[in-house]
Amino acid sequence: MSRWRAFAAWLLPIVVLSVLYRNTFDIWFREDDFPLLDFMRRAHSFREFLSVAFIPYAQGTIRPLSERLPFFLSTQLFGLDCRALRGLVFATACGDLLLINWITRRLTGSRLAGSVAALLWAMSAAIVSPMTWNSSYNEVQYPLFLLCALALFIRYEETGRKRYWWLQLVVFLLGFGSLENMVLYPAIVLLWLLFGPNRQGKKLWLGVVPLFAASAIYAFVHLHGAPTPADGPYQLHIDRRIFKTLWEYSRWAILSPGWRSLEYPRLPGSALRDVAVVALIFCVAAQALKRSRTVWFCLGWFLVTLSLFLPLPDRHTEYYLAAPEIGLCMLAASGAAIAWKAGAMWRLVAAAGIAAWCGGMLPVVIAQTARYVQESRQSRSLILGARDARGVHPGKAIFIAGVTDKLYGLDFFQNGFEAAGIDGVYIAPDANPDLHPAPGDGMMIRLVPDAAVVRHAVKAQQAVAYRWTGDRLQDISADYALPTQRNRADVPSRIRVGDPLYAYTLGKGWGGIGNAVRWMPAEAELSIAGPEAAGEHLSLTAYCLGDQLKRGPLHLTVTADGIDVGKADVLNPETEIRRRFALPDALLNRKTMTLRIAIDPVIVIAGQPYGALFGDIQIEP
Fold it and tell me: How far is CA 340 from CA 216, 328, 343, 345, 357, in A?
């Protein structure tokens, strides 16, 4: 029987995790998954993968093992079917649970504590995002490296065999490929030596010195190769807001912020939080009175693993607690083990605290998981439906009506269609009452064509229309009502030069398309709607090669119907060209006008002259 109990103690947390996330094996890509999917789709072999694996990505991150490699292998082996990737996420979380269980047993000497610590972490709302969102995989993979390295160090401490020290060093170094926070591992080892159960551990302190050296070298190289953002939500702020951030994360660790966002009753949530806090205080006090060092290791784990997130006052997210909460789970579990031996009253206190914490977490875990599963199904139905539509209508633009704010955020904003290899998908104008774009949303501007462009494409049979019904795309091409045209011209007042949908507005001289821009040699022409009010301007965005500017300034000239609009010089190192010219009153109220753009000098590559790459050209106030 004891053997079965031991087996159950290891298995129970994994069973609970399986029950809570049983529907997540069918989860698909959404939101931030798409840039990673697109990034890895460019690598067609392992050699090409290595060429992009260490390129700094979003916010200057370099995570080849947690982001690049899983997405690369998934797309190479299974295409857009990510069930194998979901299996990897679940297996990684199971590994975390086993290691939490093992380390807590070593820390407390209690089988009960190990099982409870793993059980609590399996029910934490902090792991909902990494368990349901592919691009957050690093938040369960990084703890695996952290825990595995520590477990190997503990074995080195227990046995004195150096192979365990070298193995933990290898795991530690590999962890840098998962998440930058792995630099904190030496501090975790130091906590173990200070507050772990083996009082002879201090003799091993010299073995920590190389670990700190490795972290310092990694931090130096990373900060110089991929500096932290100088602005935005990921900008570091070392000021008193650190304490406010610590307080907020501490509250979230007791009661998930999802309780409020899901609009659960506030009073029960506050009651659950208060009971859990009181029980945790009793746990800390009881262990402090017994002069147990376990409590300090657990609290130290929480603070150390949270420390790198504290200087981010403008970027708070619950999944940052995935690793820090391991420390609190160990703390609560060690208290439960002590209470179990102390008598019925203390057992009741421990049980009440654990029940209160679970009562605040489980409703959030269940609701958020169900929501993410549903959103994933919508994302898959939309994008794969667009893929099917592309197969039926090759070469035609696809206009989608019925787009909502939620659907836009899931699939359109991060360019999910192009990431899945589907081009020419747009949001149909005047057909999305539940879509409320934010001012200045560049992706929305790109995806919603001008009414004149849509009318031309439909009349020329170069486009089809579909409506999102909530779970699938429905072909409405036969009944599609053309959008209202807001000006007199058959061409728009904004020309996206690098978009094939706008090709009919282009005259002579233009070259090929690439990455939403189009090459122009020495000069080219296009048609655009004329200004409707005095004082309007012509705005254009273009790009040139740095080698062009090294030879001297570029001279940009723009005319409209033969009338001079403006001239400008482009000087080194201004490779991104943004210019705004006041339009002469002589052009006022012209239905359509022909722009002529010229650049001098050009650069010749393989016998082909190149002037500049053009993006948007528009008339604006």
Answer: 43, 18, 6, 9, 18
